[in-house]
Amino acid sequence: VIEGDEYDSAFFDKTAKFLKYLPDIAVINNIEFDHADIYADLAAIRVAFQRFVNLIPRRGLLLPGADNGEAAALATRAHCRVETFGISDDADWQAHDLQIQGTTTTFGVRRRGEPIGAFELPLLGAFNVRNALAALAVGAAVGLNTDTLRAALRMFKGVRRRMELRGTTAGVSVYDDFAHHPTAIAETLAGLRTAFPNRRLWAIFEPRSATSCRRIFQSDFARALSAADTVVLPAVFRSNLPEDQRLSAEQLVADLKAAEVDARYIPQVDEIVTTVAKESREGDLVVIMSNGGFDDIHQKLLRALEARVRR
Fold first, then answer.
1. What is the pTM of this model?
2. Alpha carbon separation from 61 to 82, 83, 250, 298 (Å, rounded)
3. Around 95, how many Cα atoms within 13 Å sit in the side-chain half-sphere?
4. What are residue 64's DSSP bridge partners?
5. Among residues 214, 221, 217, 222, which one has the least CA distance to residue 246?
6. CA–CA dist 284, 206 (Å, integer)
7. Considering just the CA atoms, what is the radius of gyration of the chain in Å?
8. Pair type for strands 93-101 and 85-86
9. How far apart are CA 273 and CA 20, in angstroms?
10. Could you give phi then psi for residue 253, rounded to 5 degrees?
């Protein structure tokens, strides 16, 4: 089981990593524009994914996400068997009746309209349910029975840096998330907001990846981050980009304020830690989103909150 990455293979080979694999079963959850340093536009990413689909043998299986139009469109381009998955009514593998109970999501599953059963996932968010559906479909394809799949899913604790709870101190819960694309940010915030509707939500986002540092998603980031109560933005990581191409953290803050979101531009990590440790209160959720180490901000914040308790 390998994650097929559409990013380039090496500095001397700009073709997608996943073109080096020969998959019997391939899952494509969603396709969006990303990796602006490698791909010129969404059309170029479509070509890469089409080439990937062409590698699946006729005896194989393609599982595209039904909830994403770009991924679903690949169903008609495959030479192998295709089964879609998602929350949409037309998905072959469909999750329905999603319910959040604490930090667990329960949902029912139908396969081509026929009930498969109820499942429990100790993770939050519709995007995690979609991932679970894909895993269930793969498991069924390789011969695992429903009881085995249900038990395994119930025990799955997630992976690091995907809405990972790093600690709770002074009643403030600090999460770490790898989100660096507007869709990922929106899904992460939606998962926390749905699970904890009455708790104040802080979003600290570091624009760090080659794409998120660019102006491409300027307005999309504002829409995604508006789900938080308070947003904190540091300096854009790739400051060497030309100004007309570089994401403007200041403009993003202005756009969020116009949408009546409490937004701050605080360039330095230590100042962010000081601000959040001072202004957060018991019951708050703080999700820190970056695809890098972000100067160890998670541990710095937890230590600052612990110091507040001792005082």
1. 0.89
2. 6, 7, 46, 40
3. 27
4. 28
5. 214
6. 20
7. 21
8. parallel
9. 42
10. -65, -40
Answer left, alpha or beta for residue 179, where phi above 0 means left and psi between -120 and 50 means alpha: beta
DSSP 246: B
Dihedral angle sign, alpha carbons of residues 227, 233, 237, 238: positive
Query: Distance of alpha carbon 74 from its chain centroid, rounded?
Result: 21
Distances (CA, A) of 128 to 156, 172, 196, 241: 11, 24, 16, 34
C-alpha distances (whole Å) from 162 to each of 78, 100, 250, 287 are 31, 18, 27, 10
Tokens of 146: 């429903």
Walk along the chain (311 residues) and give the pLDDT tens digit of each residue. 888 888 889 889 989 999 998 999 999 999 999 888 889 999 999 999 999 999 999 999 999 999 999 999 999 999 999 999 999 999 999 999 999 988 899 999 999 999 999 999 999 889 999 999 999 999 999 999 999 999 999 999 888 999 999 999 999 999 999 999 999 999 999 999 999 999 999 999 999 998 899 999 999 999 999 999 999 999 998 878 888 889 999 999 999 999 999 999 999 999 999 999 999 999 999 999 999 999 999 999 999 999 988 77
Strands (E) across 178-227 are located at: 201-205
Q: Which residue has the tokens 């008609």?
A: 76
Residue type present at position 7: Y
- For 103-185, list the strands marked E by DSSP: 104-111, 114-121, 164-169, 172-177
Contact 300, 275 (CB under 8 A): no
